[in-house]
Amino acid sequence: MTDAREKLFALTGGWQTACAVLAASELDLFTEIVKRGSATADELARELELDLQGTTYLLAALSSLNLIEKTGGAFRVVDEYVPYLDSRSPETITPMLRHQANCLRNWAQLAWTVKSGVPIPSTCGVNDAFVEFQDFILAMDVIAKQIAPVMAQKLQDAGLLNFKRMLDLGGASGTYSFAFLEKNPNPDAKSVLFDRPAALEEAKIKAANSPFGDRLEYCPGDFYVDPYPTDVDFVWISAIIHQQGDDETEKMFRRSFEALRPGGRVGVRDVYINDNFTGPKPAAFFGLNMLVRRKDGKVYNAKETIALLTKVGFQNARLALPADDMSAVIVAEKP
Ligand SMILES: C[S@@+](CC[C@H](N)C(=O)[O-])C[C@H]1O[C@@H](n2cnc3c(N)ncnc32)[C@H](O)[C@@H]1O
C-alpha cells in the first residue's frame, strides 16, 4: 500500500469504533456493568430492555477494543475507564459521548446537507428530547470543567476579571460563572445566569454543592426575546454566537452593550476560523458541525466578530486569548 492510500484509510476508519462506544454510552451499558461489578449479556439485555443478539454483538465489539473484559460469561469495565464511563461518577464524560451520538446522526448525512444546504430533519436516538437537552447541558460542563479554571486564571492575569456583577448569557449549568467567581478578587462579585429553565435546574444542583452557589442569580428565558438583566459590568458570551447568523449576533452584541454599565466589558469565547477559511482544524470541523446541526449556525472569523462588536459601540475589541480551538476569547469595553 502507498502512504497516501494508508493515510486515506486511517482518516476514514474511526466511525465504527466511535458508533460502538457512543451506542453503549447512550444505552448506559457501562454504568450497568459497573453497578453490578460484572454482568452477562443476558443480565444486561434484561435489565436495560435490549435485544439479546444486539447486546451480545455490542459487548463483543467493546471487548475487542479492550474497554471491557470477559471472564467466564461475565463482562467488567476495565478499571482505568470506569471513572469516565460510569455515568454516576463526578469525572464521567458520558453526557459528552451521548451528545456526540446525537451529533453523529446529523454528521452521517453530511453529503446530503452539503447538497441541500440544510440539516437533515431531526432523527431520534434512544432517549427523548428532554434527555438529549440535559445531556447537551452536561456535555458543555464536561468540556468547561477542564477549560474554565485555566481561562479564568488567564483572564485574571490579564486584569480582565474584576467584575462586580456578570451576565453569563447562555451560561448552561454555570461552569464558567463558578470558575470566574472563584478567581475574581472581589469577594462580593455575583453572576446572573441567563438560560432555558431546564439548563438552570442543572445549575441549581451544582450551586447547592458550591461555595459560590449563593452568589448566582437565575434568569430563565429565551435570550432572543426576553429582556437582558441590566446593571452588569461584564457580559460573558461563551460558545453562543456560532448558533446564529450575523444579524442575531449583532443584536446580541447591541443588547449586551445596552445592559452594561459604562466601562463594562464583554467577553466572547468561541472557535474562530482563519481569514483564508482553511483552518485551524477545530474551527473547520466545528463549521461542519454547525452546518449539520443548525440551520442558522456558522463558524465566525475573529476579524468579523471584532467588527460586529465595534459596530455596536464597543471599543478596543481584540483577541485577548488566541487559540486554535474553542478557547479563544475576544474582549471589548463599553466607553
Ligand atoms: C453551546 S452551549 C454553551 C454553554 C456555556 N456558555 C459554555 O460555554 O459551556 C449554549 C447554551 O445557550 C443556551 N441557549 C441557546 N439558545 C438559547 C436561548 N434562545 N435562550 C436562552 N438560552 C439559550 C443553551 O441552553 C446552552 O446552555
Explain what the structure shows.
This protein has helices at 3-12, 15-26, 29-36, 41-48, 52-64, 82-85, 94-107, 110-116, 129-157, 175-183, 197-208, 246-259, 281-293, 302-311, and strands at residues 68-71, 74-77, 165-169, 190-195, 216-220, 232-238, 260-270, 315-321, 328-333. It is an alpha/beta fold. It folds into two domains: 3-95, Arc Repressor Mutant, subunit A; 135-333, 3-Layer(aba) Sandwich (Rossmann fold). The radius of gyration is 22 Å and the shape is globular. The protein starts with a helix and ends with a strand. Residues 137, 140, 144, 170-172, 175-176, 195-196, 199, 222-224, 238-240 line the site of S-adenosylmethionine.
What is the total tally of β strands?
Answer: 9
Rg over CA atoms, rounded to whole Å, is 22 Å
Provide the number of structural domains. 2
Q: Uncertain regions: pLDDT < 50 for 5+ in a row? A: none
CATH superfamily of the largest domain: Vaccinia Virus protein VP39
N→C terminal distance: 62 Å
What's the CATH C level of the largest domain? Alpha Beta
Element layout with pairings:
Layout: H1 3-12, H2 15-26, H3 29-36, H4 41-48, H5 52-64, E1 68-71, E2 74-77, H6 82-85, H7 94-107, H8 110-116, H9 129-157, E3 165-169, H10 175-183, E4 190-195, H11 197-208, E5 216-220, E6 232-238, H12 246-259, E7 260-270, H13 281-293, H14 302-311, E8 315-321, E9 328-333
Helix pairs in contact: 2-7, 4-5, 7-9, 9-10
The chain binds S-adenosylmethionine (SAM).
Keywords for this entry:
two-stranded antiparallel sheet; 2 domains; 335 residues; Arc Repressor Mutant, subunit A; Rossmann fold; 9 strands; single chain; 14 helices; binds S-adenosylmethionine; alpha/beta
